[in-house]
């Protein structure tokens, strides 16, 4: 059991978060540097499981919004998230007592670690996505009735805002508009709740899950073990349970095009040893993998492309012809598979016609 | 006629070219003063070909000198590393993720100042000119000779870097100043890292460029000379003296472009087989395809335009195991002349296999006569499969491509490769670097995020192309020959429709009288 996040955990966390990013969520490199600087200055971050969080503790969730391309150029001041927290506290007249990531995949896994270290707060070992998703309403918090508003938003210049609106989808829409005016990158704190609610509405254990994924891959590599098998075995010990390689092969085609302002892609993978090619549909993250008529895995289940030799997760913008990949699919835990949850981040929420069927489950 | 020179860590090579024909090539050891090695190889190649000095219209030099200086931490200056961007960027000061020894060598003189721009060109903060003046005082007080200036989104608008440089120059006239927008692309930390490294080379670059100049003067060569940069295009000596960092990846680029010329192919895969590894890279329109991932130089993360090269553990000294089913990745390396069976050693290597198969006659053939035919066949199969897979992996489409084999280990490949339309083994491959330098063209590039508010994608794309073309012409390209060779457009993920990142590269032939 991980009770504290230390400097030694950050490499593992970043690697695991890249796997949970399912091809998107941004490169965690810069977030890792920020978390490292904060822990060096303030010490390790206490990690609280959902069971340990006292009922009345006020939890605030957070992360960054915007384009990863901007995040790598306009480096954060490091004060943005603190300012979003201050803004939230001033607006609500409450004091935040624990921090939780709203997204376990990609760069947003590391930003809550930084703010928890800086404010001397514990980090709740859970999140609202269980992976990476592109939008703020795609949260189990929203699914199970926690209002997205008020949303506190801040940038590096000290600009702040509070968004108060009735639905999570509208909060997302307005926050993204402000993010563009803030220079394409903003820091967000919202979905405030108490500990008792957090226990009911969050995907448990996802911070330690990310660290565990990274650690499993690293240790397997160091000991020359089969990294993929080690990862599958590791998932079996978690509440994600089911992970398997749904296909392996060579990328033979990557097409990208614009649809409604989003960059949408299709990657084609020719299986080693022939057979029907597999196709992955991408919209920031990997959404569905199909082979002919068969649906091998579909969102919200995780679809991760891992390099055959190194087991490194491959970001969608770096996909290209000739890469040898294992397609790892991971079933999301039960809290993400209910009809209410699927209405918010299931296939239809992404405009797909597919019915969701959890990996390894009957229809 | 032109001469291409490659100044490597070990050898200095020269190739004299008439148009695209190699008239002669020579090799000589690199000297510590650089210039006497260049003089010697120039003299050699001129006497070999009998070409008069007056017929030489241009000299192109490729060098790994600056890369080696950073890797070896030698002859580097302390740097005033100035950043414009506050309040942004405050969280990760300059040189945050650097190896400690290199950061210490450079003195850790870091300064963060208010300034910088947003992706759409608005200011983050106005430039704090008073603070720049104060830093000028610090630079004088600390006796620093060189400074780097990196501003947020300077690839979108460089005006703050230029203004800060102007102020520093007025205060400290002798200061050498490196500006990040001249060095790199979007990706702040990587660009800043490269700019700081550039600044620490200021003294060495001046000396090396003047030693090049001296070598040409010694031989009374009055033709202009150029130095090749990372992407295989040319820079003037004055520009290299100011931006040596732009030569960091020129070695592999020149080698691949030289191979392309020797083989007469523009769309091909180059396989360079050495003693321990094989490097596989793809040529598109005669230029290496560039890597998209961060590249470490001397332990520092950069985003240089490096050729995308896949290295596999197969070379002339690779060790054979499991009756030929497993090869490498370990190799006897430079000890091949004592460790390989054919040279009297006791290790079965790939070179032994090709001798045993009767494909090559190297060393003592009788010492490999005992190797079973099954092992020989297995090993040959394995080697060809490894090369074939690497070639296939680096391709951008399923179509077969010509494969150009270079390097001393190219004897390992004797058969056709399923991934290749044909296999080419050019002559003069050992001086491919010098040839690549000699044929280099002149380029211009832009890489920027364009806001789409109030304009359209087509308009910004056309503007980007025109600007890249103009840059190539300014750098000395014949306007009639300039072509757009690469366009990359990446809409900003998670900010639909608001902005797009466009990279355009144009190249053309050097204007020569």
TrEMBL record, chain A:
<feature type="domain" description="S-Me-THD N-terminal">
    <location>
        <begin position="8"/>
        <end position="164"/>
    </location>
</feature>
<dbReference type="InterPro" id="IPR010318">
    <property type="entry name" value="S-Me-THD_N"/>
</dbReference>
<dbReference type="Pfam" id="PF06032">
    <property type="entry name" value="S-Me-THD_N"/>
</dbReference>
<dbReference type="InterPro" id="IPR027479">
    <property type="entry name" value="S-Me-THD_N_sf"/>
</dbReference>
<protein>
    <submittedName>
        <fullName>DUF917 domain-containing protein</fullName>
    </submittedName>
</protein>
<feature type="domain" description="S-Me-THD-like C-terminal">
    <location>
        <begin position="169"/>
        <end position="357"/>
    </location>
</feature>
<dbReference type="Pfam" id="PF20906">
    <property type="entry name" value="S-Me-THD_C"/>
</dbReference>
<dbReference type="InterPro" id="IPR048350">
    <property type="entry name" value="S-Me-THD-like_C"/>
</dbReference>
<dbReference type="InterPro" id="IPR024071">
    <property type="entry name" value="S-Me-THD_C_sf"/>
</dbReference>
From TrEMBL, chain B:
<feature type="domain" description="Hydantoinase A/oxoprolinase">
    <location>
        <begin position="191"/>
        <end position="358"/>
    </location>
</feature>
<dbReference type="InterPro" id="IPR045079">
    <property type="entry name" value="Oxoprolinase-like"/>
</dbReference>
<dbReference type="InterPro" id="IPR043129">
    <property type="entry name" value="ATPase_NBD"/>
</dbReference>
<dbReference type="InterPro" id="IPR008040">
    <property type="entry name" value="Hydant_A_N"/>
</dbReference>
<dbReference type="Pfam" id="PF05378">
    <property type="entry name" value="Hydant_A_N"/>
</dbReference>
<feature type="domain" description="Hydantoinase/oxoprolinase N-terminal">
    <location>
        <begin position="2"/>
        <end position="171"/>
    </location>
</feature>
<dbReference type="Pfam" id="PF01968">
    <property type="entry name" value="Hydantoinase_A"/>
</dbReference>
<dbReference type="InterPro" id="IPR002821">
    <property type="entry name" value="Hydantoinase_A"/>
</dbReference>
<protein>
    <submittedName>
        <fullName>Hydantoinase/oxoprolinase family protein</fullName>
    </submittedName>
</protein>
């Amino acid at each position: 059991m991980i009770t504290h996040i230390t400097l030694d955990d950050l490499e593992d966390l970043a690697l695991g978060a890249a796997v949970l990013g399912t091809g998107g969520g941004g490169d965690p490199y810069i977030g890792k540097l920020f978390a490292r600087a904060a822990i060096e200055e303030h010490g390790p971050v206490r990690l609280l499981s959902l069971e340990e969080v006292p009922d009345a503790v006020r939890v605030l969730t957070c992360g960054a919004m915007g384009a990863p391309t901007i995040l790598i150029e306009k480096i954060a001041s490091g004060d943005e998230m603190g300012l979003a927290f201050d803004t939230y506290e001033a607006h609500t007249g409450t004091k935040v007592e624990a921090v939780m990531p709203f997204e376990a995949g990609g760069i947003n896994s590391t930003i809550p670690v930084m703010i928890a270290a800086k404010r001397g707060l514990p980090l709740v070992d859970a999140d609202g996505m269980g992976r990476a998703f592109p939008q703020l309403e795609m949260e189990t918090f929203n699914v199970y009735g926690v209002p997205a508003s008020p949303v506190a938003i801040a940038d590096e210049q000290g600009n702040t805002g509070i968004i108060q609106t009735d639905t999570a989808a509208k909060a997302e829409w307005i926050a993204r508009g402000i993010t563009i005016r803030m220079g394409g990158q903003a820091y967000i704190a919202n979905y405030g709740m108490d500990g008792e609610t957090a226990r009911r509405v969050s995907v448990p254990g996802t911070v330690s899950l990310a660290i565990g994924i990274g650690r499993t891959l690293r240790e397997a590599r160091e000991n020359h073990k089969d990294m993929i098998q080690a990862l599958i075995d590791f998932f079996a010990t978690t509440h994600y349970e089911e992970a398997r390689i749904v296909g392996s092969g060579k990328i033979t085609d990557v097409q990208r095009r614009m649809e409604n302002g989003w960059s949408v892609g299709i990657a084609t993978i020719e299986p080693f040893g022939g057979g029907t090619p597999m196709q992955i549909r991408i919209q920031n993250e990997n959404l569905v993998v199909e082979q002919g008529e068969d649906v091998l895995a579909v969102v919200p289940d995780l679809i991760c492309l891992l390099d055959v030799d190194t087991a490194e997760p491959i970001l969608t913008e770096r996909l290209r012809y000739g890469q040898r990949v294992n397609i790892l699919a991971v079933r999301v835990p039960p809290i993400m598979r209910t009809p209410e949850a699927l209405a918010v981040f299931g296939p239809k929420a992404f405009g797909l016609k597919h019915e969701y069927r959890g990996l390894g489950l009957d229809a | 006629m032109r001469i291409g020179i490659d100044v490597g860590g070990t050898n200095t090579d020269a190739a004299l070219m008439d148009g695209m024909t190699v008239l002669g090539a020579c090799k000589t050891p690199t000297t510590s003063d650089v210039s006497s090695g260049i003089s010697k190889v120039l003299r050699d190649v001129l006497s070999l070909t009998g070409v008069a000095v007056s017929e030489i219209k241009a000299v192109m030099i490729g060098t790994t000198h600056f890369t080696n200086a950073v890797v070896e931490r030698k002859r580097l200056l302390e740097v005033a590393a100035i950043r414009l961007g506050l309040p942004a960027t405050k969280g990760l000061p300059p040189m945050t993720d650097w190896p400690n020894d290199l950061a210490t060598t450079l003195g850790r003189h870091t300064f963060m100042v208010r300034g910088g721009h947003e992706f759409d060109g608005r200011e983050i903060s106005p430039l704090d000119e008073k603070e720049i003046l104060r830093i000028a005082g610090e630079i004088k007080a600390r006796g620093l000779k060189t400074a780097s200036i990196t501003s947020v989104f300077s690839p979108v608008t460089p005006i703050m870097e230029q203004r800060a440089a102007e102020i520093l120059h007025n205060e400290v006239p002798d200061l050498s100043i490196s500006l990040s927008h001249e060095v790199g692309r979007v990706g702040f930390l990587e660009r800043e890292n490269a700019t700081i490294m550039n600044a620490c080379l200021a003294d060495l670059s001046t000396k090396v460029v003047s030693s090049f100049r001296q070598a040409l003067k010694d031989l009374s060569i009055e033709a202009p000379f150029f130095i090749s940069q990372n992407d295989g295009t040319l820079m003037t000596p004055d520009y290299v003296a100011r931006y040596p960092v732009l030569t960091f990846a020129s070695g592999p680029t020149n080698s691949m472009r030289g191979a392309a010329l020797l083989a007469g192919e523009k769309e091909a895969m180059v396989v360079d087989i050495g003693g321990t590894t094989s490097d596989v890279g793809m040529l598109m329109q005669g230029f290496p395809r560039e890597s998209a991932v961060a590249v470490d130089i001397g332990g520092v993360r950069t985003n240089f335009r490096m050729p995308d090269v896949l290295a596999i553990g197969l070379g002339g000294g690779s060790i054979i195991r499991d009756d030929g089913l497993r090869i490498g990745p370990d190799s006897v390396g430079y000890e091949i002349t004592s460790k390989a069976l054919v040279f009297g050693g006791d290790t079965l290597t790939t070179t032994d296999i090709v001798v045993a198969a009767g494909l090559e006659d190297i060393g003592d053939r009788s010492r490999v006569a005992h190797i079973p035919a099954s092992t020989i066949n297995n090993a040959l199969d394995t080697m060809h499969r490894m090369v074939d897979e690497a070639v296939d992996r680096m391709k951008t489409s399923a179509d077969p491509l010509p494969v150009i084999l270079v390097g001393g280990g190219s004897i390992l490949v004797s058969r056709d490769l399923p991934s290749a339309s044909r296999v080419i083994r050019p002559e003069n491959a050992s001086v491919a670097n010098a040839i690549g330098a000699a044929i280099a063209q002149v380029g211009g590039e832009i890489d920027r995020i364009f806001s789409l508010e109030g304009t359209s994608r087509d308009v910004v794309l056309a503007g980007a192309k025109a600007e890249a073309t103009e840059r190539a012409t300014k750098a000395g390209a014949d306007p009639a020959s300039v072509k757009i060779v690469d366009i990359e457009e990446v809409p900003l993920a998670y900010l639909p429709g608001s902005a797009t990142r466009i990279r355009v590269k144009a190249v053309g032939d050097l204007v020569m009288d």
